[in-house]
Amino acid sequence: MRRLTPRIGFVAACLLLPLTNVAAQPAPGSNAPAGEAESGNELLVRMMEMFESCASLTARVRHQARLHNDTLVGSGYYWQRGTGDQRVTRFEMQTQLVGKTASFEQVFDGEYLWTDRRFPSGRKVRRLEVARLQSRLLTRSQDSGRPGQGAYEKMLATAAVRGGISQMLADLQHRFNFDPPRATQYNGLPMLALVGHWSEEELKELWPDFMAETEKGNTPKWPAQLPHHVLVLVGQNNFFPYMIEHRRFADAFLASTVTGLRPTTEPLLRYEIFEVQFAVAMDNQLFEYKPGDVDWSDETTVVLEQLNRHRR
Known about the structure:
It contains 8 helices and 13 strands. The protein has 312 residues and is an alpha+beta fold. The protein has a single domain (47-311), classed as outer membrane lipoprotein receptor (LolB), chain A (Clam), CATH 2.50.20.10. A hairpin with a 2-residue loop joins strand 5 and strand 6 (122-129).
């Protein structure tokens, strides 16, 4: 299954949070008591459930990205309110490109997901109708014929199209298989570290030549902008994702070491989520978006056509 947005480089894509097409996948077991996840994938599901049940959340966000020989740094804010059909979110980020400010603004107002990207070279605004996309993703899940997946698939499909941190987690769930969680610390807090490795299907999709060359006994050169693995640091007590880090091939050895349970010095992409507050009152205007005079495009139909094409 392919991404629903043009591939402009994995790091750049992550920075701009494009919509991700989420395939139906088997739900990890959910019988273990809280804090005793049987696998990393199960813990990731718990994290998504926590986000879906959280009625109010605000946080600050820092990001660092390596784009070829340049290191980009930036910061922003995240707001989330409501559960179920009442969920609304807002995500703002800023960074510096070629000495000028670039910004990303994403607003889910309960009906549409608006994405406003501003670069030194121009501005692009798009809109997606979330209910239509969610319905199509759920139809794909039902067509997969897997029994007993309803609640999990609905949560995954919903998270994948509403933007924000939930969408990040859905993207991780889709792309990676996670090792069992391991205890560590981050900023003095007890954490569970999840190390994720590419799913074979997803890696083959992103890098078709990899499997072919490997089967021939060759060792293909890993693309500079493709992460080798990912590290997620999760609060032991609240299942909150405080850090998501995509790593370079040069740091491949970290995937199997104790040192690798801490952030690396030169990540390919890192998001740090901090100053997290729950049960905070928010102004309704935070979750309203008006594009103004700029030309914008509704890309819902385009995405639906891509879904249909991928299914065939």
